[in-house]
From TrEMBL, chains A, B:
<dbReference type="Pfam" id="PF00440">
    <property type="entry name" value="TetR_N"/>
</dbReference>
<keyword id="KW-0804">Transcription</keyword>
<keyword id="KW-0238">DNA-binding</keyword>
<feature type="DNA-binding region" description="H-T-H motif">
    <location>
        <begin position="28"/>
        <end position="47"/>
    </location>
</feature>
<keyword id="KW-0805">Transcription regulation</keyword>
<dbReference type="GO" id="GO:0003677">
    <property type="term" value="F:DNA binding"/>
</dbReference>
<protein>
    <submittedName>
        <fullName>TetR family transcriptional regulator</fullName>
    </submittedName>
</protein>
<dbReference type="InterPro" id="IPR011075">
    <property type="entry name" value="TetR_C"/>
</dbReference>
<dbReference type="InterPro" id="IPR036271">
    <property type="entry name" value="Tet_transcr_reg_TetR-rel_C_sf"/>
</dbReference>
<dbReference type="InterPro" id="IPR001647">
    <property type="entry name" value="HTH_TetR"/>
</dbReference>
<feature type="domain" description="HTH tetR-type">
    <location>
        <begin position="5"/>
        <end position="65"/>
    </location>
</feature>
<dbReference type="Pfam" id="PF16925">
    <property type="entry name" value="TetR_C_13"/>
</dbReference>
<dbReference type="InterPro" id="IPR009057">
    <property type="entry name" value="Homeodomain-like_sf"/>
</dbReference>
């Protein structure tokens, strides 16, 4: 039993690394099993299909990212300080990915949105749920900041969507240019999007 | 000769439609030729490889989009009015795509960035050039707006990058939710990012 659950984990880990490097479509089950070091028969013991594996990879990646986001966005500091931490965590993750894989891997969810959302409804729905959850986490912090008069937005949910969209757009460029410094602009952009009233308020491009 | 150049065009058109619908990796040369209604032998007469075809699709798509962007961003109106037109043109294109394909196809360049940029250096470089050209077109309008005192950014190039990143991020969500209305927020976001000083200045979420 210990060995079997280990094999599932190995398959998911190998698949995630391969998807980050090369995308989902190009992957074959045999290749995933080889990278995972498990016999091909194991695959269909754990997963009904390659799509089921994709969903498992998405869920596991989100479990880790959700922990990191909640940790960054919680705690005793001021709301905008916590929001800033989210961007720092994102940039650190992209830097770490670049060190490990040699290339900025971008956002797994963004990548799969563009690669898979037109093919499989199950993946599309899951990715929608994850982005909604991200928006909700950011929304809560923006609402706190608004209550303190730190930001000037009417609809905090809509503002959170814009912040997450900005994050996705800049991460896409970080991937294209293989340069995590592309994410340097995120914080100033976020403050501008939120009409922030903080001492370090700066519009985009400063 | 007339027939031959017609076949090349048919291949590029069919490939573009298939890439928008299903991505690049999943495509086979035989399928592209079938959709284009040309014999498979024609393919290698025109294209050295599938990658060469991808570059041709990218170039042709950019030729059309560049015309549309230049048209939107030029003319006698005020710079911010022209910039707004760019977002309207983008939204109209996504709506049209949704009517034709049944699903919002997103940005071909963003899609290929996430799907291909880690695989082929030629495609990565071409996509970088295209995004630079987009940023340059937007930069010119922002610089005009700044000269009039309409926006408050220090570095117009950096600001243009943020605007294009915002566009990419929101288009990604429009694709994920198959809903071009996701792009409604773009104009307010853009004004906020630029620290715009226009009568219709609104921060994100208004």
């Amino acid at each position: 039993m210990g060995r079997t659950s280990d094999a599932r984990e190995k398959i998911v880990d190998a698949a995630r690394a391969l998807i980050e490097l090369r995308g989902y479509t190009a992957l074959g089950v045999a290749e995933i099993c080889k990278a995972a070091g498990v016999p091909k028969g194991s695959f269909y013991y754990f997963f009904e299909s390659k799509e089921a594996l994709a969903l498992a990879v998405i869920d596991e990646h989100w479990a880790g990212q959700q922990r990191a986001w909640k940790e960054a966005l919680s705690g005793g500091s001021e709301p905008l300080t916590r929001l800033r931490r989210l961007f720092e965590v994102t940039q650190a993750a992209q830097r770490a990915g670049q060190r490990t894989c040699g290339t900025v891997s971008g956002c797994l969810f963004g990548n799969l949105t563009l690669e898979m959302s037109n093919h499989t409804e199950a993946v599309r729905v899951r990715l929608q749920e994850i982005f909604e959850a991200q928006v909700e986490l950011v929304d809560a912090v923006i609402a706190e900041a608004r209550a303190r008069g730190d930001v000037a937005v009417a609809d905090t949910r809509e503002a959170a969507r814009s912040v997450v969209a900005q994050l996705e757009g800049q991460v896409l460029f970080a991937k294209l240019y293989n340069d995590p410094r592309r994410l340097d602009a995120l914080w100033a952009n976020c403050l501008a999007l939120l009409g922030a009233r903080t001492p370090d308020e700066v519009p985009a491009g400063l």
